[in-house]
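Obj: model holo form, ligand = zinc ion.
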Amino acid sequence: MLDPNAMDRSVDPCSDLYAYACGNWLRQNPIPPDQSRWSAYSKLQDETLLRLRQILEQASKGGVERSTAQQKIGDYYGSCMDESSIEKLGAAPLEARLAEVRALASKPALAAWLGRALPRDPGGLAFTYSSAQDYRHAADQIAQLDQNGLGLPDRDFYTKKDARSLKLRADYLAHVAAMFALAGEPAERAQSDAKTVPRVETALAEASQTRVERRNPDNVYHPMTLAALTKLSPGFAWEEFFRESGSPAPARMNVAAPRFFKALGRWIEREDLAVWKTYLSWQLINGKAALLSAAFVNQDFAFFGKTLEGREALAPRWKRCTERVDAALGEALGRVYVEKYFPPVAKEQAQRMVSAIQASMDREIGALPWMSDATKQKAKEKLQAMANKIGYPERWRDYASLEVRRGDALGNAERADAFEYRRQLAKIGQPVDRGEWQMTPSTVNAYYDPQLNGMNFPAAVLQPPLFDVRSDAASNYGNTGATIGHELTHGFDDEGRRFDAQGNLRDWWTARDGKQFDQRVACVSTQYSGYTVIDDIKVNGKLTAGEDVADLGGLIIAYAAWKAANQDQPARVLDGLSPEQRFFVAYGQSWCTNERDERKRVRATVDPHSPEKYRANGVVSNLPEFQQAFHCKADTPMVRKNRCQVW
Ligand SMILES: [Zn+2]
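Output (holo structure tokens):
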């Protein structure tokens, strides 16, 4: 939980907690060639992958009696690992799909084809069609259309004008051309087709919502009828699209990004059919590249792995295949994982800690000086209603209708995508399943879902060195306690606070309290906007506000919970650290991370989390408890003059 050897005691914790807690770790843990970053979390995920690999290798062995689930995960893995069969096929698995696109003779036919194609390409060809919980009616599931269709990680990659962005776009163009050539186009044609792709994607990017815009739920909630959608976006044949999509046209749907669909319709109208056929061909190739022969995999890695993220080497095949099984059949694989590696006692102990953190939040709300009793009562109701899901889902997903065929890696992936697509569409008009998980049990991460008002902690995040109940309480609370506090605070961050106890987007705050809250979030936002990610790139404090608020509130609640739970314990000194110091060093060490520069730049645009150094230092510099623990003087860097406090 706390590794004294990872620390650098030559650093003054009052000037830089992160360097003090992680200094040696950062030197001792270089980034492996196949990774773009390396942290306590990624290390644990890597170890978990090894465990999953064992399960999968066992399940993929022929000649022994296997359960249906073992057959599915084993054959999926075995097919993915069968490199020589995949190699022999080359570009062949793509050809039939590309031929479908080439044969499209009209724009309505294109819309109909998109409807048919979506199940096999749910990652999106221009946009996504799925289901979602209704923002204002949390008990209902409705259809949802959303923006998509960009090859680069964010709209900003198409609009920024600095030298690095221009170079990246030139590299992207070369990559698209190389992929068209691999798919069989003559060199000259591949070059000219490649130029079409960024042109279409830039138009889609300019019409796309920014990540900051999308943090406001009002911006992504626009329920409308099919007639209204057709009026918004008349250039696209929606009737044809829905008719072919495998589910009846919904009477009402959420068009999450109206501006995007308006522009898409206009563009489809304006541009030649040939332009769209080129663009959709690229989308198909790009979406399947990682599942095809080595030539495709390597070219895909050269751009997305190396150029974009700075990785030096492709991950070994077993890792990529294990991750694919986890993505396609995660609850079948996770069920075996949980039986082997997540004992009931771990679940009970995590549950106990969650309850302690929840009780601590309840006390914090009660004691808040700036909030009225009316809002406090509603906040406490929301806290009481929050569901805690620990380890794995109560009811495992049934994969019976998903056919997995040995020797058909790409087909298996497409059938898994279609299974998921149909599962999502089948929810439309049905009551919401409040027990569903968005992460698999073998994921080293956790999340809060504002619409279900629930926290989820997968089994794999509840293991050493992140969680170990036998270890010192101070470090346990500083690490996993802070994570639990973080997820819980998401229910009350600037986005989460907009939802009520049942998960409806509804304002339950008095106007005065809402204003107070916004001012406090603005303090945090300004603080983080001052931090530098790399070069001259600053943290986008408006993008990271929710995570920063959750980090800050989470640590305060965890600290109070730890104090309340361990009042009677004698204050032992271990490794030269008082219990209070161990709490904060363990917190700092939970963030030890080495990261490649390329990845830092991408993250600054796409990741709502601040860089790890600031997740440690930004939080503790707002905490008088930290300053007391290390006897920091008022003029040291870890003592902020304008303290930010929300919760
Ligand atoms: Zn978070």
